[in-house]
Design goal:
Four Helix Bundle (Hemerythrin (Met), subunit A); 164 residues
Length: 164
């Protein structure tokens, strides 16, 4: 449970960092907001499934940065509330849901939350890559930067990694 709490804390921090980076970085590509909105939409959909209710936001929502900020805040509050109120047996509870392809599954709450955390890491990396390719400077969201409170090292401009 402690590791899951740390991952959720990182998720909330990383979502905020991406939002800040999208608002302040020069250069833009609409795919960055589309992917970031998807991260938030997926968080929302999974939280709705856990709660046994219909989501009010699509998994691929069309959001502005202000809409992203509102949804990120709602998701953060819901994730923190879920973990604060959860008993260990609640994390093992099976959640029945139907995915976007119409297939029905049962997954444990802790597996869903782990997926949500990892899914966000994947797409935040895509946002950073696209932002950098468009001339922007993405905010670092590495977990180690979160836990030590200092950004991870970055490549020097023009430096190429050694291939072995």
């Amino acid at each position: 449970m402690q590791h899951l709490q740390k991952l959720v804390d990182h998720l909330v921090w990383a979502d905020a960092r991406v939002l800040e980076g999208l608002r302040t970085s020069p250069g833009s590509d609409p795919r960055t907001i589309e992917l970031y909105a998807h991260v938030l939409g997926a968080e929302h959909v999974w939280l709705a499934r856990i709660a046994g209710r219909q989501p009010s936001v699509a998994v691929w929502p069309m959001l502005t940065l202000d809409g992203c900020a509102r949804l990120a805040a709602e998701n953060a509050a819901a994730l923190r509330r879920l973990l604060a109120e959860a008993k260990p047996d609640a994390m093992a509870r099976e959640v029945k849901y139907t995915n976007s392809a119409g297939r029905t599954y049962d997954s444990k709450v802790d597996d869903i939350l782990l997926h949500v955390a990892l899914h966000g890491v994947y797409h935040r990396g895509q946002v950073a890559l696209i932002a950098r390719m468009a001339g922007g400077i993405p905010s670092p969201t590495d977990y180690i930067a979160f836990v030590r409170g200092d950004p991870a090292a970055t490549r020097v401009s023009g430096e190429r990694p050694a291939l072995r």
